[in-house]
Amino acid sequence: MLSRPDVAVIGAGPVGLAIAWRCAARGLRVAVHDPAPGSGASHVAAGMLAPVAEAYFGERELTGLLTASAARWPAFAAELTEAAGADVGHRTEGTLVVGLTGDDLAEARRLWAYQQRLGLPVTPLRPSQLRDREPALAPRLRGGALAATDHQVDPRRLVPALRTAAERAGAVVVPGLVTRLSDVDAGTVVVAAGCGAAALAGLPVRPVKGQVLRLRAPGGGGPGFRHVIRGYADGERVYLVPRDSGEVVVGATEEERSDTTVVAGAVLRLLRAAVDLVPELAEYDLVETLAGLRPGTPDNAPILGPLPGRPGVIAATGHHRHGIVLTPVTADLVAGLIVDGVADPLLAPFRPDRFGTEENTWN
Amino acid sequence: MLSRPDVAVIGAGPVGLAIAWRCAARGLRVAVHDPAPGSGASHVAAGMLAPVAEAYFGERELTGLLTASAARWPAFAAELTEAAGADVGHRTEGTLVVGLTGDDLAEARRLWAYQQRLGLPVTPLRPSQLRDREPALAPRLRGGALAATDHQVDPRRLVPALRTAAERAGAVVVPGLVTRLSDVDAGTVVVAAGCGAAALAGLPVRPVKGQVLRLRAPGGGGPGFRHVIRGYADGERVYLVPRDSGEVVVGATEEERSDTTVVAGAVLRLLRAAVDLVPELAEYDLVETLAGLRPGTPDNAPILGPLPGRPGVIAATGHHRHGIVLTPVTADLVAGLIVDGVADPLLAPFRPDRFGTEENTWN
């Protein structure tokens, strides 16, 4: 245990650990509090680094942050691999976004046009071009697009690597649940507790349930495709993330619920959409079904920066679907706030005080 | 440990334990050998007692045995409940067999006509009559039938109850795998080892893989239907077995494979068929996916009786899909063979020597 650390981070998910790593590497004494490091949303997450495919209408500022963070990922992954001595499954084959039916393709095209207007690199492909890139795709797909800069990382490798890197830099992971901010005594307290930020700091973070499957290629080989595949299949949105290990992550529902049960209908819809897009997945082992809770916010964007009326407390939560991709930029900017006292302009749209000061307007 | 027991049973599934119970209750000293009692096919089985719905073309002798055993079930369940002091989930609401599409119904009707020619109690019902009995059934079902005497039991309650009853009667369960018959020294050796009978005794038993799901009604209540429901849904055969606990067993594939992996396509087909027949199942939790290996035989019928050329060795295996329903009759007849030396005429069609004496003709 540290006697009064410079920084106490509440939450040992990717965001909390990366902040701890950055601060410890800058010479601060850092404690990270978590009853079960890496057991939250990151345990369920697929690990897509997809600022392009995740650029949705009306989320322009979020798209800017996603893009900035994704651009940091190659260097971040390399530095982390070096610091931790562990591979984090960073892969750069890019993402294919596909539409199964004419309606699916029409919906996708509307979004690609918007993404192109933002200057994002999304390249429409004909069915034959899709199948040239990934012969495993269903022949009846009506079309798709390549988002070449949308990559992936393996969250289940990322978390232990970040912990190792943070600990090697001098941070201490303290087991145990923090239920009140006042229970932690440190120069700066960082709330990186995902959904727990609501109870801890009154922030407008709510759980958004996501159900996810993990398949495994039969026979011990790798999956029969290399790109991340995202798509619309008869109106159902699904993603397929292949790993070198043979694992394919299939996700995900988005539900305004706070339970983590796996429900038959969700599994049915995910499997049907997955097999519609990549028929060979029917032959894959189903090795895991689980659900996690994303920390959602009123505007789907994270909450980053000093808490109004709480000197010395900084929020780094509410990352919703984007916790993995936003890990590098969150860590860099929050460490900059703490160590240098400098608020990067990138942070401005994500300040905690944007929801107003009345706590009851947040919930 | 017993010094040279009268009877050594190899295999502590329902069949082996019930034989042990019957023999011990008749005063014999009985040992049951199994490395993991109740971990075989019975752990996966749904526990339907369905001689009518399982009466298929060309299996008339098997149908006779199934009917005889099902008739013994009410008394067997009552006696076992008394002996073990444990409920085994015996339920007598009957079975509804349904057809989703016109083609499904046509296929089902052909079988019902055959079953009626055998004098079996199967009563066709119109869609409105089906829904009167089970409002949870899909409105678009084209028709069905009631097999009122096809009941159910819970195999996961049955096995521990049988073990308790056998032990209370004096039988001893010996942990450990028997790999050769000659390793067991007893007056009579009973091979009740399921698929293990092939390696142990050269019997023509092969694994038939079955994948099964377990759902659970949300909110802690019971399922929204009481009958066992079996059906054809767009050519897919599925059964749904509701338990008081809220569990619904959904099964099952039949595959000529010896692995026990759970495969995405099988889960997809089972879930789709289940939700097609009973839409509310989409809202149920998916709590378990697993696969087991049924002990199949060349003619789908069990192998019951003295092994040719092996004095003192009796087979009680090869029960394929019917191990649970056939447990009472198997136990009674095999105990009769051992204790009284009497071969019931019911056994005649199931003698081990029916496959010929050349081992290579069995495999």
TrEMBL record, chains A, B:
What's in the keyword line of the UniProt record?
Answer: Oxidoreductase, Thiamine biosynthesis
Recorded catalytic activity of this chain's protein? glycine + O2 + H2O = glyoxylate + H2O2 + NH4(+)
> Which pathway does the protein contribute to?
Cofactor biosynthesis; thiamine diphosphate biosynthesis
InterPro entries linked: FAD-dep_OxRdtase (IPR006076), FAD/NAD-bd_sf (IPR036188), Gly_oxidase_ThiO (IPR012727)
Task: Quote the Pfam families the UniProt record gives.
Answer: DAO
| Any GO molecular function | glycine oxidase activity
User: Would you kindly state one Gene Ontology biological process term found in this protein's UniProt entry?
Assistant: thiamine diphosphate biosynthetic process
Task: State the superkingdom.
Answer: Bacteria
What GO cellular component term, any one, is given? cytoplasm
Q: Which residues form the FAD dependent oxidoreductase domain?
A: 6-336
Instruction: Report the EC code(s) recorded for this entry.
Output: 1.4.3.19
The name this protein goes by in its record: glycine oxidase
Source organism (scientific name):
Micromonospora nigra
